[in-house]
Amino acid sequence: MAATTTLHLRGIFARLAVLLLLLSSVTCDEQVPLLLWTSDGISRSTPSPPAAGHIIEQQQLTSYLEKALNEGPRNVVLFLQDKMSIEDFTMYGGAFGNKQDTAFPNLESALMSSSSRLVLPAVSWPASNAVIGQLQDQLETSPLYMDPETLSQLRLNASSPALLVFRLPYGLGADLMSAKEILSGNDEVIGQVLSTMKAQAVPYTAIYTALQPSREAASLSMESGLGGGRSLLQARGGHRERERERERQRRIKEKAGIHAPVEFKEGEDTCILLWARGLSVSILRSGRWEEHDLTASTFGEGVSPPLHGSRCDKTKSKLVLNYENVLGHRSFKLIFAMSQRHYQVSARRWFTLDSVQLEYDRTTAQFNGSRNVYAPAEYSYRCESVTNFRWPQLVPRSLNDPANQWRVSFQDFQIQGFNVSGSEFSYASDCAGFFSAGIWMGLMTSLLLVLVLTYGLHMIMQLHTMDRFDDPKGPAISVPQTE
User: Fold this and answer.
1) Assuming Cys at both sites, which of 32, 43, 182, 284 could form a disulfide with 210, CB separation 3.0 to 4.6 Å?
2) 244, β-bridge pairs
3) From the first residue on, what is the mean pLDDT of each consecutive set of 10 residues in the chain (483 residues)?
4) Nearest to 201 by CA among 39, 60, 72
5) What would the pLDDT profile of 191-221 be if each residue is shown by its tens digit?
6) 382: Cβ–Cβ under 8 A, 6 or more apart, which residues?
7) Contact, 353 vs 336, CB < 8 A?
8) Contact assessment for residue 305 and residue 298, using Cβ atoms and an 8 Å cutoff
């Protein structure tokens, strides 16, 4: 009886040990690294790093940050990534001797050049999630969400504290290279920011951390825990989680590239809208194409290109974008001329982009777009790419037109010249046809399979069974060759 009770208690303790092991394995993955360093020439007492395997909680992280800000610069540059884990540095940081393959060259250079640096490999992600609030309380200033371009326009003062926050994305697609490319892009942003801070000669304290871990805990079953065997490294999370992450990164990229459309008003009402992700022109000189990107001069926050010369009415509209110093031309105009009229065959009104004109130095290069760029008058027109050289939708007016020496390229192009309500586009008529390449491939493959099936059925129907059989007791059957 005593032996049975002892074995029963041992079984209970064994189950508890396995349960605690599983819980501890899940808890260990819920942490993010935090890197802290100061600018060149700034020295302070470096706190002793935590013991191996120790997880920094919020209270201990607060003491680390408080000591760093009390002894170091109070201009804080915070690089806050969406997700990050210590495995990102071991996988993509050239940790196995191949430093040329590292995704963090700028980060490693900054850490090596700093005399005061602190590396916390395991910070509980709720504590890292609240790092902005902790810095805001200690600096007594509000955070400024910046990007490398706007940082160059900001003038910092070493005597007054500042909290500059740079949000960095993180993505994990179907292949591991996508995550490395995004981390390399984040490292380039870090390098640009640190170069700008160095150019302003303002001492700073830099922090690099994340909101939550990128490597989620693996879902361990009780059987695998009891087996105690080793398993190969595998991507954590199922297919659905990867798809959700990929969609979120796509939205982040789209949101980062969204800007307001060009808007022309006649009086109080908007009558023309234009939007494009990329807007560029090129000219052929000495056998080479020289390109000029007009996107930054046309779209963006605080950017409003001059629109003098634009006009609109019920049947015709004209949008004129005026630029200066484009490819050596002091005055340069990009003109979109549109018209609308009623078509009896479709019993509705349609608008067409009659022409795209480039005016420079009293010369006009004119492209015809009415054959390919059109939409119902109530809609806007949208196309992934509108060019005159690759799957051209714009063609020069004539063989002798100066447009033959020019290339125009509009990426993610959308325009509306009539029936504009408010400051938003109407429903978009897309240039992509219904029968895409994938649809044609599916139809042709299905047709081929139907033909093979039809031929097989036809051959089976041509088979004839024997209608006469040989009788061993009777005379032999004679089959004429004609049958």
Assistant:
1) 32
2) none
3) 45 41 45 86 67 81 86 88 85 66 86 86 79 83 80 80 87 57 88 88 90 60 38 43 58 58 86 91 88 88 85 91 89 93 87 93 90 90 89 87 91 91 86 78 95 95 79 73 63
4) 39
5) 999 988 888 888 899 999 988 888 654 333 3
6) 412, 413, 414, 425, 428, 429, 430, 431
7) yes
8) yes
Q: Give the side-chain half-sphere CA count within 13 A for 299.
A: 20
How confident is the model over 8-53, as pLDDT tens digits? 434 433 443 443 343 344 344 578 899 999 886 666 666 677 777 7
Q: Which residue has the tokens 């609308």?
A: 340
Tokens of 385: 């790419």
Q: CA 412 to CA 199: how far, in whole Å?
A: 36
What are the b/e assignments for 169-202, b being 16+ CB within 10 Å?
bbbbbeeeeebbebbeebbebbbbbbebbeebeb
Kindly calculate the radius of gyration of the chain based on its CA atoms and give it in whole angstroms. Answer: 34
Which residues touch 60 (CB under 8 Å, ≥6 apart)?
Answer: 50
- Please state, in angstroms and rounded to a whole number, the distance separating the CA atoms of residues 412 and 380: 13
Query: Cβ distance 353 to 338 under 8 Å?
Result: yes
Total number of residues shown for the chain? 483
In 251-369 the beta strands, taken as DSSP E runs, fall at 262-266, 269-275, 278-285, 288-293, 311-312, 316-326, 329-343, 348-360, 363-368
User: What pTM was estimated for this model as a whole?
Assistant: 0.43
> How many whole angstroms separate alpha carbon 320 and alpha carbon 340?
18
Q: Which residue has the tokens 């490693």?
A: 108
At residue 4, φ and ψ (nearest 5 deg) are: -65, -45
The candidate with the shortest Cα–Cα distance to 386, out of 401, 398, 368, is: 368
E strand or H helix at 415: strand 406-416
How far apart (Å, rounded) are the C-alpha atoms in residues 276 and 279? 6
> Angle CA(177)–CA(183)–CA(187) in degrees, nearest 5?
140
In three-state secondary structure terms, 39 is coil
Backbone φ and ψ for 350, nearest 5 degrees, come out as: -125, 145
